[in-house]
Amino acid sequence: MDRFTSMLVFVQAVDLGSYSAVAEEQQMSPQMVGKHVRHLEQRLGAKLLNKSTRQQSLTQLGQQYYQRCKTVLAEVKAAEDEASRYLNAPRGLIKLASSITVGYILTPVIAKFMHDYHEIDIELVLTNRSVDLINEGFDAVIRLGVIENSRLIARKLISYKNIPCASPLYLQQHGIPNHPTDLNNHQCLHSHQSESKKMWRFHGSDGDFMVNLHSRLIIDNGQAQLLAAIQGLGITLQPYPMVAHALDTGKLIRVLDQYQASDIDIHIVYPVSQRLTPKFTAFLEYLLTTLPLTKMNPVVSPHPNQILNESN
Fold first, then answer.
1. Do 269 and 247 belong together in one domain?
2. In the list 103, 109, 130, 235, which could disulfide-bond 166, CB 3.0-4.6 Å?
3. Whole-number CA gyration radius for the chain
4. For residue 51, which phi and psi values (nearest 5 degrees)?
5. Which tens digits make up the pLDDT trace of 203-233?
6. What is the pTM of this model?
7. If DSSP codes are grouped into helix, strand and coil, which group holds residue 47?
8. What's the sign of the alpha-carbon dihedral 79, 85, 88, 90?
């Protein structure tokens, strides 16, 4: 018989005062409780309990052995609790993939997370290609737009506003668009990745509009598009966190502020079959609670003409 179990049964027999109470606690028969106690007595070669039909009492050796057993059981429980805390503590490496634009938005949030969780490391791979979550060993992918895959779980983190803007130089040279259809006569920086990237959608009081884009410069990276816009090469449509600093410093000016460009959701995606480890659960909960508090939407901007006049 297992000696540790026998010690546990013996201590409970003393604490609870009867074999039947121990049997109910341990879900075993009273006869099995007696076998465990006798197993210890046979190993020791001496009686531990004096037992009659009405009462039981510890022998002198039983009293000493009882105290020792309680100490051993307490130490084992403490060791198990410590091991459980270690196993359940958030620690280890989280491997993430993200589009380059989303990575720009996420990096400050990840930095704050790592300050709070010193035992978690993060590998963030920034790429605009589609990645294979399982075969490439990623814990999760953070992406823009709608995710439709029955093998994946997609949790929405936040929606952001897309802001159309251009540099003062560009607007002075090419004029200010006042309506989405005016963009047909402008250089609109965009990506070659898909047809959807070559079309901007706007909503206003006079309806919905889709604009096919024209540009001499096509760039598949949001930050590079931002730099090109600052250099006066065209109008860019970017998430507000990407352009906030350039807008605040006057390097870019918001246009078409009477129209709302399509919002885009950011999702974190992971396999349905993935076990939620403590480290990943901590990261997921941090994103879900922290990102919605991040400043993602712009304040109302003055008309571009006013800004240009003030700068002259």
1. no
2. 235
3. 34
4. -130, 135
5. 999 999 998 888 888 887 788 899 999 999 9
6. 0.62
7. coil
8. negative
* DSSP notation for 257-274: TTSEEPPEEEEEEEETT-
Q: Mapping DSSP to helix (H, G, I), strand (E, B) and coil, where does residue 181 land?
A: helix
CA-wise closest residue to 301 among 263, 248, 265: 248
Length of the chain: 312
Residue type, 133: L
| 155 plus 189 within the same structural domain | no
Are both 269 and 155 inside the same structural domain? Answer: yes
296 sits in which H/E element: none
Q: What's the total number of domains in the chain?
A: 3
Point out the domain boundary residue: 34, 53, 88: 88
Q: What is the residue range of 84's domain?
A: 3-88
φ/ψ region of 234 (left if φ > 0, alpha if ψ in -120 to 50, else beta) reads left
DSSP element (H, E) containing 17 = none
Domain containing 182 — which CATH number? 3.40.190.290
Q: What are the tens digits of pLDDT across the range 56-100?
A: 888 999 899 999 999 999 999 888 888 887 777 888 999 999 988
Question: How many C-beta atoms surround the C-beta of residue 311 within 10 A?
Answer: 10
C-alpha distances in Å from residue 274, one per residue of 97, 116, 269: 16, 24, 11
In angstroms, the Cα distances linking 81 to 74, 279, 288 are 10, 19, 30
Distance, in Å, from the CA atom of 297 to the CA atom of 301, rounded to the nearest integer, reads 12
Q: Which pairs with CB-CB distance under 8 Å and at least 24 residues apart come from 299-306?
A: 300/257, 301/247, 301/253, 301/254, 301/257, 303/257, 304/171, 304/176, 304/253, 304/254, 304/255, 305/176
Question: Per-residue b/e over 44-75, b at no fewer than 16 CB within 10 Å?
Answer: eeeebbeeeeeebebeeebeebbeebeeebee
